[in-house]
Amino acid sequence: MPEGDTVFKTAQLQNAALAGRTLTGFDIRVPKFATVDLTSQVVREVVSVGKHLFHRFAGPGEQNLSLHTHLKMEGAWRTVAPGRRWPAPAHLARVVLSTADVVAIGFQLGVTELLPTADEATVVGHLGPDLLGAWSEAEAMRRLGEHPEAPIFVALLDQRNLAGIGNVYANELCFLRGVLPTRPVGEVGDLPAMVRLAQRMLEANKARWTRSTTGDLRPGRQTWVYGRAGLPCRRCGTRLLGGELGERPGQERVVTWCPVCQG
Asked: Is the pTM of this model over 0.70?
């Protein structure tokens, strides 16, 4: 699943391509909204909120609409010049936004819906502070503190605490702070430092597609522990352990840790 930095970058590119342009075609391939046609409306802006995307349109009358999408595991937004070949099969497209100069296609989107722009809070109002948006360390700490018994790995992934962290960052944050992923939030020393590190890591990666938490962009060197179960720890050489951890059955996520550095 894309992390918050990937969604932020996607929003930036979509905004650069579409903002201020008039739609010459609108195709939303979701039965509930299939009859809606926003052709001739102007794309006001494209923004991200945590891992959610909003394409905001300026329509006639007082009620402006937003296209709300979420990439989930497989989703992606791509742009091409009109008439050019798409980068993925057409049957995977959920939304097609056409303008005179560019066509934006949303492929394999996990969520695709239209709603009044004024009602965006109904789908993102539950989220915690956005690490790449309206950020408040104090509010993030308050939310994390509401469930001191939760494993820190699970708490970091919970978008109701702070929005934008995915599996990569949750694993890397636990390693960099020397914390076992299963340690309860209430027992994590200097939790504010972990929260600040999370914000810095996403900020450092938001302008590039190649994510790195080690500072090394070379293939195979971008992470400390994520995706490296069974390999030597980059710090101490101990074999990294791996497993699954989640809030409840069916919600487990892959977790990797060093039994020495995080012991």
From this structure: yes
